[in-house]
Amino acid sequence: MNLSFASRLFARWSAIALFAAACALPAQALELAGVNIEPTAKVAGKELKLNGAGIRTRVIVKVYTMALYLPEKKDTPAAVFDSQGPRRFAITMLREVTGEDFGQAFMAGITANTDKAERSKFVNQLGQFGEVFVNVGKMGKGEVLTCDWIPGSGMVMAVNGKQVGEVLPDIAFYNAVLKIWLGEKPVDTSLKPALLGQSKG
């Protein structure tokens, strides 16, 4: 075999091997404001991919990080809302917020991004959703709120891994909650593109 040809062949296969090894490496966690955002999450037995993550900032104060997990990555709100299978969004607090303030902010976000007719369809779930934050009392720095959509069951909320509140069965309500950040009037205009994987937030 020609030595030059053999060298080129070796170099080519070495490059392929290195690329394959790199692809085999696990995805690394993203760090935002000192919070590790995991690249995957398991919900209802299915591994979900990190769609995007960012920081909720109010004026200049960093309030929480948020990560959105889906079965497949989506880059538009409509595609997220239409996503099939389980989903998760996870919020990690960067400062302490009372449950009442947190709940009121969420309710305001839902109201801003849905109309009265839409809200009338899940008024009971809206009330149960608000009660969760009243009952939680406060969310301290470092505490984690997860909201999972589990097909065939509903929306399951947990604080630090412990379920809070009732299971809320309507996918339309889960999407209404997501509209707080992904709707036409998002609570934070920089967080919306971050959750869609368009920036790091």
TrEMBL record:
- Per the UniProt record, one Pfam family is Chalcone_3
The keyword Signal belongs to this UniProt entry's keyword annotation:
yes
The protein's GO terms of the molecular function aspect are: isomerase activity
Ranges for domain Chalcone isomerase come to: 30-197
Which InterPro entries does its entry note? Chalcone_isomerase, Chalcone_isomerase_3-sand, Chalcone_isomerase_sf
Signal peptide bounds: 1-29
Can you tell which superkingdom this protein's organism belongs to? Bacteria
Alphabetically list the UniProt keywords: Isomerase, Signal
Q: What is this protein called?
A: Chalcone isomerase family protein
